[in-house]
Amino acid sequence: MGEEKAVGCARPTGGPVGERVEEATSEKTEAEKEVRQMIQVGKKAPDFAAPAYHQGKFTNVELSQYLGRWVFLCFYPGDFTFV
Amino acid sequence: MFVHKMWNDHELSKMVDGGVPFPMLSDAGGRVGRVYGVYDEDGGVDTRGRFLIDPDGVIQAFEVLSPPVGRNVAEALRQVQAYQHVRETNAAEVMPAGWKPGKDVLKPGPDLVGRVWEVWQTKQAFD
User: Fold this and answer.
1) B4: containing domain
2) Whole-model pTM above 0.90?
3) In chain B, how many domains are there?
C-alpha cells in the first residue's frame, strides 16, 4: 500500500490526517482536547499518515487506505527492543 | 524508518521467512501515538498498543501494555476471528467469554435472558 517515496537525510515522521485545521480554529480547553482524543471501541479510528518501510521500500501509509480490510495497528517503543 | 530496515533485514528476517510482511511505520515524535493514547511523554516512546480496526474503520478492540511485556498474538487473532464472525452474522451470533473458533456461540434475544446458564457452562471460559 502507498506510493514509494524518495528519502533524504531528514528524519521523516507522520501525524494525524486532517487535524491541523481543527487545531488552528479551536480554542478548546486541555480537558476538552483530552476528551476529543480519547479512543473508544465502537468509534472511528483516527486517520493518520506515516512514513513506512515495507518489503525493501520506503513508502507512505495512510490508515484510510485500509478501509474495507481488517487492520491490526500496533505500536511499540522502538526497533530492537527485546520483547 | 531507516532503523526499521536495519531491524527487519538483520534480525526480524531471521525470525520470519521473507521478513516482516506488513508495513513498519515510523512515529518519530509520537504524534500518532498521542492521538491513540499510547505515547509515554516521560519516556518519549510509544507503549505497546494494539488496535483492532474493522473494515469500516471502527475500532473494535484494543490493548495497551507497558514496554517490558509483549503481546499475545494468538489472543489478537482470536479476537479478529470473533469479530469477523459477529460481522458475518450481523451480530445475530455473539461470542461468550473464552470463545474460540469451533466453540459454541450465543444467539441474543428475549428467550436467552436469564438462561445463559442453560446453554453455556463456566468451564467453557477456560478450556
Assistant:
1) 1-46
2) no
3) 2
Confidence of residue B125 (pLDDT cuts 50, 70, 90): very high
Tell me, yes or no, whether B55 and B95 share the same domain: yes
Q: What percent of chain B has pLDDT over 70?
A: 100
pLDDT of A29 > 80? The answer is no
- Asked if B127 and B121 touch (Cβ cutoff 8 Å), the reply is no
- pLDDT greater than 80 at residue B107: yes
Show the 3-state SS of chain B: CHHHHHHHHHHHHHHCCCCCCCCEECCCCCHHHHHCCCEECCCCEECEEEEEECCCCEEEEEEEECCCCCCCHHHHHHHHHHHHHHHHCCCCCECCCCCCCCCCCECCCHHHCCCHHHHCCHHHHCC
The complex's ipTM? Answer: 0.91
- Partner-chain contact B11 A43, CB within 8 Å: no
- A44 by DSSP, 3-state: which? strand
Q: B23 exposed, middle or buried (CB, 10 Å; 0-12, 13-18, 19+)?
A: buried
Residue A49: its pLDDT value, please? 97
Q: Is residue B112 domain-shared with residue B53, that is, in the same domain?
A: yes
Cross-chain Cβ contact A71/B24 below 8 Å? no
State whether B35 and A14 contact (CB < 8 Å): no
